């Protein structure tokens, strides 16, 4: 099968890498660090299956346009992508579907938002309604910080139009889990669970980022935990979407928190997570292309299989990420890092520099994935490869998967 992957980050590199085990793959637009990258738009590429990676083109209706042209597409249309394009709408769907989630309110006025903030406990959560590249969520114990966020979101200063409507939520606590469900419109199958690290600094301090690392499998996220999540969250959500006339064919990424009062859904994303994809997909032992093509055709059958080992991904970011990433720094050591046994390096914010070298071209530059028989071994390999990499200002967390947490602990 000829497969076209749309996007240019580490997630798309991992999709292309794993699809490439069984199929011919091109990536559009990709980046100079992803083999098979082409500048031709997806609409003009001849492919048997198109897999859309990022949320922005999904929200923008790329899947609808390709489907109208008769293409087989893995990724929801703009109607289903609203789950990620509007957190307020997503919360409405969750409530309708009876899925447990944080108490919340959606506001476009300061007085209403601040009054609701005062009904929250000691942990304040303020989110942009619209897309903000994973950075529009503030979780803080400081009321003053939450108030500042409300003002800067609503004014458009912080996130432009994405924040002019915002969602305030009850602050929840507990270990988190990400489950990626592959959906064909009416049924869904879960991929192996993963856990990601959102905060920029070691020990989970600093601002939220797009994600600084991940690992899979997650201890105690057993088959029955995942089955319960599918039955209590994913399936009712798919049914609620169908009730709205939405035929959802793509990934439903469920971000979950195991709170003292039971599991609650924090968010849905409408695409593979980044960097979760870089640990989940390398562990797949069945054919990814067949799975995604079956879902895209509305005919899922069979269950994906995963190896018994573990994968750990460490994101290497540029100086200043996530606030103001510096670009243009020369990347050294890529070959040596990739040569570490059991390691794959996925290219994200990578550009072409002078004399054929690669340079940093974004916040998250590379994801280094180690695979081994255990989380400890996978982690050791990933960090051995990270040690080979260098650029001015390279920063990564040193504690990814150091103490895997367990749902319920
Ligand atoms: P989201 O993009 O909505 O998943 O939020 C990003 C991150 O913010 C999550 O992975 C959590 O770590 C944190 N977060 C989101 N919602 C809440 C909440 N209601 N309570 C506590 N933390 C949250």
Please describe what this structure looks like.
It is a single chain. The protein has helices spanning 10-19, 55-59, 62-68, 78-85, 87-97, 110-117, 143-155, 223-243, 277-280, 288-296, 334-338, 375-386; strands at 2-7, 24-29, 49-52, 73-74, 104-107, 124-128, 137-140, 166-170, 176-184, 188-190, 195-196, 199-201, 205-208, 213-216, 249-259, 262-269, 310-317, 343-347, 350-352, 358-360, 364-372. It is of the alpha+beta class and 409 residues long. The strands form 6 sheets. Strands 11-14-17-21-18 form a 5-stranded antiparallel beta sheet. It has a 4-stranded parallel beta sheet with strand order 2-1-3-4, with helices on both faces. Strand 1 (2-7), helix 1 and strand 2 (24-29) form a beta-alpha-beta unit. Helix 4 (78-85) packs across helix 5 (87-97) and helix 6 packs antiparallel against helix 7. The N and C termini lie far apart (44 Å). The model has no long low-confidence stretch (mean pLDDT 94). The structure holds adenosine monophosphate. Adenosine monophosphate is lined by residues 102, 125, 127, 137, 139, 169-172, 176, 198, 208, 255, 266-267.
Task: Chart the SSEs and their pairings.
Blueprint: E1 2-7, H1 10-19, E2 24-29, E3 49-52, H2 55-59, H3 62-68, E4 73-74, H4 78-85, H5 87-97, E5 104-107, H6 110-117, E6 124-128, E7 137-140, H7 143-155, E8 166-170, E9 176-184, E10 188-190, E11 195-196, E12 199-201, E13 205-208, E14 213-216, H8 223-243, E15 249-259, E16 262-269, H9 277-280, H10 288-296, E17 310-317, H11 334-338, E18 343-347, E19 350-352, E20 358-360, E21 364-372, H12 375-386
Parallel strand pairs: 1-2, 1-3, 3-4
Antiparallel strand pairs: 5-8, 6-7, 6-8, 9-10, 9-15, 11-14, 12-13, 14-17, 15-16, 17-21, 18-21, 19-20
The chain binds adenosine monophosphate (AMP).
């Amino acid at each position: 099968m000829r497969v076209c992957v749309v996007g240019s980050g580490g997630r798309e590199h991992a999709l292309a890498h794993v699809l490439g085990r069984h199929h011919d793959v091109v990536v559009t637009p990709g980046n100079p660090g992803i083999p098979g990258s082409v500048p031709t738009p997806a609409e003009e590429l001849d492919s048997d299956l198109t897999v859309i990676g990022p949320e922005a083109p999904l929200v923008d209706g790329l899947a609808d346009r390709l489907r109208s042209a008769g293409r087989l597409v893995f990724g929801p249309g703009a109607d289903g992508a609203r789950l990620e394009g509007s957190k307020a709408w997503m919360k409405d769907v969750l409530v309708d579907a009876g899925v447990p989630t944080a108490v919340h309110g959606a506001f476009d006025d300061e007085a209403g938002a601040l009054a609701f903030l005062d009904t929250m406990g000691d942990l304040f959560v303020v989110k942009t309604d619209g897309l903000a590249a994973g950075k529009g969520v503030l979780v803080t114990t400081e009321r003053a910080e939450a108030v500042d966020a409300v003002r800067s979101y609503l004014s458009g200063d912080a996130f432009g139009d994405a924040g002019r409507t915002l969602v305030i939520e009850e602050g929840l606590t507990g270990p988190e889990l990400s489950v990626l469900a592959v959906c064909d419109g009416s049924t869904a199958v879960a991929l192996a669970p993963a856990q990601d690290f959102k905060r920029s600094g070691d020990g989970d301090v600093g601002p939220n980022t797009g994600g600084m690392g991940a690992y899979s499998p997650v201890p105690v996220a057993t088959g029955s935990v995942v089955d319960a999540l599918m039955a209590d969250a994913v399936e009712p959500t798919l049914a609620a979407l169908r009730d709205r006339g939405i035929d959802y064919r793509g990934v439903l990424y469920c971000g979950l928190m195991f709170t003292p009062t039971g599991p609650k859904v924090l968010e849905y994303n409408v695409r593979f997570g980044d960097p979760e994809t870089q640990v989940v997909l390398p562990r797949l032992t069945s054919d990814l292309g067949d799975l995604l093509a079956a879902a895209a055709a509305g005919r899922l059958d069979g269950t994906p299989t995963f190896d018994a080992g573990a994968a750990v991904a460490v994101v290497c970011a540029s100086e200043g990420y996530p606030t103001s990433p510096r670009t243009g720094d020369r990347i050294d050591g890529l070959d040596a890092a990739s040569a570490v046994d059991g390691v794959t390096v996925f290219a994200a914010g990578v550009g072409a520099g002078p004399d054929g070298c690669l340079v940093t071209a974004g916040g998250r530059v590379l994801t280094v994935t180690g695979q081994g028989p255990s989380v400890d071994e996978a982690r050791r390999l990933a960090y051995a490869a990270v040690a080979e990499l260098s650029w001015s200002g390279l920063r990564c967390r040193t504690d990814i998967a150091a103490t895997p947490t367990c749902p319920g602990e």
